[in-house]
Design a protein that fits this description.
Blueprint: E1 13-19, H1 31-47, E2 51-57, E3 62-68, H2 71-93, E4 104-109, H3 112-123, H4 125-128, E5 156-157, H5 163-170, E6 182-183, H6 191-194, H7 197-203, H8 208-217, H9 220-229, H10 237-251, H11 262-275, H12 280-287, H13 291-298
Antiparallel strand pairs: 1-3, 1-4, 2-3, 5-6
Helix pairs in contact: 1-2, 3-9
Length: about 300
């Protein structure tokens, strides 16, 4: 089953999506911020007609698995989320376009093995960051909804909220009359009303023990390398050359790759690497940079 095609779990496509956080900046500072980011994840998915399978919210970035038609729809969802959160952060902290310089990585999940690795990597993100010792100890993830029979019976329908309640609890003025979400007493969209936990449970053949075993035995460093530093498939040099040429011309006012300074090349490494199925050797060939330098920049 490990290399089995993913389509037997879901009739569309699954994507691993992450935003690359801003170094030395903590975007989410208190519980209200985390709650707002949580609810905006749900609302952005609903507005773009995608479904969230797994997520983790960190202080300056997020990871999630999205079920949708294609990569463009996943991209639309994450951009809407960043727009909503940016407006909130600007209003609260006076930050100007706090997510403007963050790039997004969107990778197609095409096997069950890859899906399991993504699930474990996302749910263990706080453990890897040494925030907690077990994934279940971190509050701002979808961990609690898998293999759980408990549902929040005290939650209320989002459609029943008054305008002032929407503003206070969800930080939005959206028309939620057709929204299927339910809101818990502490103001969060309930996991069971917006997370496709059934996809995760089917991936582990409805075995909670298998789920816990896999999360407990995974190698965080190895998974981080496989999922964020080593794309599963690379595009050929010609196609990547064309992609880089267009990107450079757009970013630096019609400059060619050969006209870039060393500093300019360094500044575009991360967006090129994380937004394309490329590799360090390929970027080295196209940009004419030492592999070790590229590797060092990408690791910071």
């Amino acid at each position: 089953m490990e290399e089995e095609d993913i389509r037997h779990l879901y009739d569309s496509s699954l994507y691993h999506v992450c935003t690359n956080g801003l170094e030395q900046i903590t975007l989410l500072k208190d519980e209200e911020d985390y709650k707002t980011a949580w609810n905006y994840l749900a609302l952005s998915a609903w507005r773009t007609e995608v479904q969230i399978v797994v997520f983790t919210i960190m202080s300056n970035h997020i990871h999630e698995i999205i079920a949708c038609r294609d990569a463009s729809q996943a991209d639309k969802t994450i951009k809407l989320f960043k727009k909503m959160l940016s407006l909130y952060l600007k209003k609260k902290y006076g930050l100007t376009k706090p997510l403007h310089r963050t790039s997004d990585c969107i990778s197609l999940i095409d096997t069950v093995r890859y899906l399991k690795n993504c699930i474990a990597y996302i749910l263990r993100n706080a453990v890897c960051a040494r925030i907690c010792v077990k994934p279940e100890k971190y509050r701002w993830t979808s961990y609690a909804c898998y293999f759980s029979s408990s549902r929040n019976d005290n939650a209320i329908s989002a459609a029943s909220l008054t305008f002032s309640q929407k503003r206070k609890m969800l930080k939005t003025g959206l028309d939620l009359n057709r929204c299927p979400f339910r809101i818990s007493e502490d103001g969060l969209v309930t996991l069971d009303s917006f997370v496709r936990y059934d996809i995760v449970e089917r991936a582990y053949r409805h075995s909670g023990k298998s789920f816990l075993y896999y999360l407990g035995c995974c190698n965080d460093a190895k998974m981080e390398y496989e999922l964020t530093c080593q794309p599963l498939m690379h595009i050929n040099d010609n196609d990547m050359q064309e992609t880089v040429t267009k990107y450079v011309a757009h970013r630096f006012r019609d400059k060619s790759i050969s006209e870039l300074t060393s500093a300019e090349k360094c500044s575009i490494l991360k967006p090129l690497f994380f937004n394309n199925k490329t590799s360090i050797p390929q970027l080295s060939r196209i940009l004419g940079m030492p592999r070790e330098l590229i590797r060092r920049i990408l690791s910071t």
